[in-house]
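Figure 3 (text version): structure tokens given as input.
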């Protein structure tokens, strides 16, 4: 028997299996043939046919006509009319992939993912190689919050259509939404290996790279999208967002300006431009940008909230009434939450304590409902952080330390004075501020993997952690011999930082507990990671956990960490600043007391405050709200 005859028989077997509904077996045979003979057109066509809905039979012409009508209604934007045809059709022909698939698509078009689940599952069960049905089932699962099952569906699509860049792109986007960023990056790399000019894959990979801190590569991806569509505003907005993350604020503003030049009605561009202008200290321009965004989209609650950040309210301020009217008409929970935080800030400025607290309490309650915060899980994670140190500190890195700038890690809780401390340090001639980079979060992974596997912490692992951290910090505009990293959650890693960076300095912020927690509760955090902050009792208990962990690090490494008290800093700025600089190995410079005149960009909720000289009294502001803070005060006072 010749090789050609053998292949003919094999392909004929695959066709028979497909005709009898054994699609997976047919798919496997076609794949085996293509693995041996990649140019075999019949095998390739056979695989392609398997990924499409099975064709209708000669007697199904009425079904075909009805399906065509359903598609016409969907194309015309009338899913209700499509549903009136699709439901009875699917009931009459439950075993046809096309009828079940059509009904599922109609439900998705109606925004009813739950209703789509049944028919799409039936379609996939009948023909598991139909990639459109599998992909839409993944869409329905994702909309219902079943991310793991959705990713499994989209992974199956890439196995069925390994040469489809769109399949890999869909998978990459789903993985990114599930915060599986390294896997998302790999999937998007696969998509772009198949089609290097796929704008959707480039934009998605740029967003993933931004989250991974790979800013230079992310900017390159965004610029490729901009070059491919130079008259569209959205790619420039996305570029500006990454440039802001990379702390290249002037370049971010330029990107947003380019976007509004192309689309003068791009309210998102004006809003994001306002954020970057605020980072740069160009307050009046920031306010004007937010007002323009609001003028273009009066119900744009994020722009209202951003404007509130930079506005000092007095009784009768028209923006307060405007936000109250918006809140009364708004039904979207996220928008109501943003307005609630903004109105809480406004009434706090005015001095109307009860109204301020009512808005803040409602906004926090809404945010708490939207996040999945597990106190028990957090407590277990804190305990797990201590476990590797039961026998004492980890072995320390002993290699060369001239591999980059000396890091100063500022750790603690938000709203404890960390931005002020960074500004003081960054005013020094030998220091740059890296802001709130989570570089160590990503860099520490090899060390954690070794500990979890029971392997010893070797010098190679510690050198790897240092190298990863250095590479990520190098993505930021820092060039001085000392760099401040004020990602406060690095408190979790203090023992690990000490092992990988024995040359680093660590400063732990301390502030009155009630003042710290109340300041957190008042603030809308746009970023993730502060899920503990939206319930007063949970917030107090988290503060106790964090304080206990800090005490553990202090006991493990006596003298290694400087505790910097915010109240002392505000009352005795020069003496405290001198002690801070001495701990960091820096000579005193008068500029560190005049930090507010430096003009340095600041991306923090405290940006407005740290542009003023040091002032006292902020830690007593909570006392006006003492009558409302019973759950917080009780939680802070409880004994473990």
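Below: residues designed for each position.
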């Amino acid at each position: 028997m010749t090789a050609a005859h053998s292949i003919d028989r094999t392909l004929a077997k695959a066709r028979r299996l497909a005709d009898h509904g054994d699609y997976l077996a047919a798919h496997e045979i076609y794949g085996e043939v293509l693995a041996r003979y990649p140019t075999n057109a019949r095998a390739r066509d056979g695989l392609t046919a398997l990924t499409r809905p099975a064709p209708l039979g000669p007697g199904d012409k009425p079904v075909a006509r009805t399906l065509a009508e359903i598609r016409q209604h969907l194309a015309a934007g009338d899913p209700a009319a499509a549903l009136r045809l699709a439901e009875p059709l699917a009931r009459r022909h439950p075993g046809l992939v096309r009828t079940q698939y059509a009904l599922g698509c109609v439900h998705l078009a109606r925004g009813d993912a739950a209703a789509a689940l049944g028919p799409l599952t039936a379609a996939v069960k009948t023909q598991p190689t139909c990639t459109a049905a599998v992909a839409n089932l993944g869409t329905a699962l994702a909309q219902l919050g079943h991310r793991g099952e959705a990713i499994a569906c989209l992974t199956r699509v890439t196995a069925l259509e390994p040469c489809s860049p769109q399949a890999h792109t869909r998978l990459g986007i789903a993985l990114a939404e599930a915060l599986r960023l390294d896997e998302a990056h790999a999937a998007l790399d696969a998509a772009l290996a198949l089609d290097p000019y796929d704008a959707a894959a480039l934009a998605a990979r740029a967003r993933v790279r931004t989250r991974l801190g790979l800013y230079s590569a992310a900017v390159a991806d965004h610029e490729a999208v901009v070059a491919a569509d130079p008259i569209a505003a959205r790619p420039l907005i996305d570029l500006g967002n990454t440039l802001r993350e990379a702390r290249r604020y002037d370049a971010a503003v330029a990107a947003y300006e380019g976007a509004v030049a192309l689309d003068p009605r791009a309210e998102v561009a004006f809003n994001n431009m306002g954020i970057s202008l605020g980072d740069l200290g160009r307050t009046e321009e920031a306010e004007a940008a937010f007002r323009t965004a609001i003028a273009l989209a009066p119900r744009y609650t994020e722009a209202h909230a951003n404007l509130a950040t930079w506005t000092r309210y007095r009784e009768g301020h028209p923006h307060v009434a405007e936000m109250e009217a918006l809140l009364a008409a708004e039904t979207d929970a996220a928008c109501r939450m943003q307005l609630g935080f903004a109105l809480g800030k406004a009434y706090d400025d005015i001095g109307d304590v009860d109204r301020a607290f009512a808005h803040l309490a409602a906004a926090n309650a809404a945010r708490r409902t939207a996040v999945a915060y597990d106190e028990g899980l957090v407590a277990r994670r804190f305990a797990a952080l201590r476990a590797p140190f039961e026998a004492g500190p980890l072995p320390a890195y002993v290699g060369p330390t001239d591999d980059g700038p000396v890091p100063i890690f500022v750790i603690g809780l938000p709203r404890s004075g960390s931005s002020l401390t960074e500004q003081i340090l960054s005013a020094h001639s030998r220091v740059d501020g890296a802001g709130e980079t989570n570089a160590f979060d990503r860099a520490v992974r090899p060390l954690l993997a070794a500990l979890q596997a029971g392997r010893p912490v070797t010098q190679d692992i510690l050198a790897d952690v240092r190298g990863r951290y250095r590479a990520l910090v190098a993505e930021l505009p820092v060039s001085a011999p000392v760099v401040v990293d004020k990602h406060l959650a690095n408190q979790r890693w203090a023992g690990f930082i000490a092992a990988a960076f024995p040359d680093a300095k660590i400063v732990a912020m301390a502030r009155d507990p009630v003042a710290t927690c109340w300041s957190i509760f008042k603030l809308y955090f746009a970023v993730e990671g502060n899920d503990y902050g939206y319930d007063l009792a949970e917030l107090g208990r988290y503060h106790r956990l964090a304080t206990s962990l800090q005490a553990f690090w202090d006991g493990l490494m006596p003298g290694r960490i400087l505790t910097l008290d915010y109240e002392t800093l505000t009352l005795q700025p020069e003496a405290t600043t001198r002690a801070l600089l001495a701990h960091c190995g820096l000579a005193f410079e008068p500029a560190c007391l005049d930090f507010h005149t430096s003009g340095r960009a600041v991306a923090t909720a405290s940006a407005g405050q740290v542009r003023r000289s040091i002032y006292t009294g902020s830690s007593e502001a909570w006392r006006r709200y003492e009558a409302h803070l019973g759950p917080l005060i009780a939680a802070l006072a409880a004994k473990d």
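The chain has a mean pLDDT of 92.
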